Amino acid sequence: MPLEPQQFPAATVPTRFIGGRITTEDPAQPEADALVTDATGRIAWIGCANKLPAAFAGDAYEEVDLGGARVIPGFVDAHMHAVMLANFAPQISVLPPNIASIAELTEAIRARRAAQGPNAWVEGWGYDEALLAEHRSPTRWDLDAGSPDAPVCIMRTCGHIRCVNSRALEIAGITRDTPDPVGGEIERDATGEPTGVLKETARDLVTPFIPKPSEHDAVQHIVDLGRLLASQGIVAATDMCSVDGTDTHPLLLAAARAGFKQDVATYMLWDYIKQNPDAYELGPEQMDRSQQIFAAGIKILTDGSVSGRTAWFYDPFLPSERDLGATNCGMPTCTDDDIDHAIAFCQNHGCQLSLHAMGTHAIDRVIDRVIAAGLWDANGVPPVRIEHVTAPSPHAISAMAANGIVVVTQPIFPYAEIGTYLTNLGEERTRRCYPFRTLVDAGVDVCISTDAPATSWAVPSDPFPNIKSAVTRQAYNHFDFDAAEALSVEEALARYTREPARILGFEGLGMLKAGYKASFAVLDRDILAIPADEIDRVQVAATYICGEKVFER
């Protein structure tokens, strides 16, 4: 069905901003100290105030003195699950300092069960065994202690693993005799009994039974999320897919009509398209990048996560008692045919293909299959982006550079999940992960993003710990994961603003230049002048989207 027409930004008051230290990300004019916006919310002029044209100097323009503050283009989060993050807000957050142990999780479940009653699902998100006092994953029996009768589902931080209780297993019909689905694993104890931990595609066995929020509530959650993103200087984001893979485009359109301000590029999960080939429209109207909400392409999951021990490597993870003695190199979560059919779909529709690939084996596989199939015209943006790219081989790096294949990576992963990385990979392999400097120097297009909410951080969409990680190559606990692979602050900012806007095709974003949208963030301290280990303390003082102040601290 056709999409409803989208509303362009309302008229704004023409404004003259002076006295700023403006990083424009425009290579032709990297710095400025003044900019002028027009009634459409676009930048009419930007430069040095002493060269301000007379046409912009009169009383027709309001004037804002930036007081010497550092101004940057608004952040563009190239890999976020916006709707998922919005819907997680009412759930139990299984992250320190809220919850730091399985015992505390059990108590939180017990309290939520008492408040909701016996028939409502108890949901939570964000657990990471490395951050729990017991240093292990919860199991069905831990969740049963908090709720023996109501179903419980707790999503791991990576988003690839769920832990459910016995009642949820019963509702989903999962028993010791249930076979593992293709690309997934029902974790079992030494006796063959399901532990409640469902990995990769196995997590989808319970998805149909978990109630969705009403459309009204889902829209309100997105509007609320927009306020949080504005407070972080984020002016554009992505919805890389929902929990169940269904199309979130209509919800985001409804949220935009209800006051959500950010631009969003949406991606549909390939598994859903494969099962519902006629349910997803992807034509010129949906992919029109002049709209606030537009469809960018599709996403396919080709392996799992490092922290969940399901990313697909050639070399095995370090031994774990949960592997029950088996050698574990992770797993592919789709077939070669799935990748080939997803490529063909994108070729036929002229859209972008996003491939989740973390392990070295998974990365090599997707690159080789893409190159064998041949690249395509994706309406002015790079046709292929690979997500995460934790441990690329030299072959993969050179192939990505030679073919214009984009890397969308997350410095926040090793920063926040360092304990799990060290446990699963060891120090040497961990230091080889996320080779930002090597990728950039090889000529690979790189974007920085958060993958919120799929990371173990209290406020997963916060850009500043992410930038700090890219610049310092130190985890939150000061573990050094190879400073030789660090980016400069300037490089990190470009890969969080200009580059993702270009690669995703966000019209008028990523740079501050005449004709572009007046979408920018005013910082409370100069991120280019402070010590690198203080970057995570930076806060946004104000955010403007299309000339409108949408946040002020």
Automatic annotation (TrEMBL):
Coiled-coil residue spans: none
Secretion signal, residue range per the UniProt entry: none
Keyword terms of this UniProt record: Hydrolase
Name of one Pfam family that matches: Amidohydro_3
Domain (Amidohydrolase) ranges: 62-551
Domain of life: Bacteria
GO molecular function: hydrolase activity, acting on carbon-nitrogen (but not peptide) bonds
Protein name: Amidohydrolase family protein
Organism the protein comes from: Enorma shizhengliae
Upper lineage: Bacteria, Bacillati, Actinomycetota, Coriobacteriia, Coriobacteriales
